[in-house]
């Protein structure tokens, strides 16, 4: 049981880091610091978008419209942190 919880914790941790990378690359493209048509940047945004956009889309369905402000990555980040802390709590209580 402990190994499974630790594996899920590592997967959630990896997901959090890739979410932060997705947010960062989005900001870099939005502020025109990097060129979105550069092959590496395009590949990176495509891969990270395919990983995160399905879940972000689900979060956006329940979020109020705030104009140009997208808070869904923050909500997803907090939900992933909650899941991670919940799993750590289960691990502590199990031992």
Draw up the topology in text:
Elements: H1 2-30, H2 39-62, H3 72-94
Helix pairs in contact: 1-2, 1-3, 2-3
Question: Describe it for me?
Answer:
It is built from three helices and no strands. With 95 residues, the chain is mostly helical. It has one domain. The chain is globular and about 50 Å long. The mean pLDDT is 91.
Q: Largest sheet, described in full?
A: none
Number of helices: 3
**Uncertain residue segments:** none
Total DSSP E strands: 0
Series of secondary-structure elements, N-terminal to C-terminal = HHH
Question: CA-to-CA gap between the ends?
Answer: 10 Å
Give the total of domains.
1
Query: How much strand?
Result: under 5%
Give the overall silhouette: globular
Kindly name the structural category: mainly alpha
Q: Estimate the mean pLDDT confidence.
A: 91
- Mind telling me the C-alpha Rg? 16 Å
Q: Helical residue percent?
A: over 70%
């Amino acid at each position: 049981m402990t190994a499974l919880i630790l594996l899920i914790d590592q997967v959630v941790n990896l997901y959090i880091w890739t979410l932060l990378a997705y947010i960062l690359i989005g900001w870099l493209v939005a502020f025109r610091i990097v060129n979105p048509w550069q092959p590496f940047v395009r590949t990176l945004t495509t891969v990270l978008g395919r990983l995160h956009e399905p879940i972000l889309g689900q979060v956006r369905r329940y979020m109020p419209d705030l104009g140009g402000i997208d808070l869904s990555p923050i909500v997803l980040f907090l939900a992933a942190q909650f899941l991670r802390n919940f799993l750590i709590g289960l691990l502590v209580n199990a031992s």
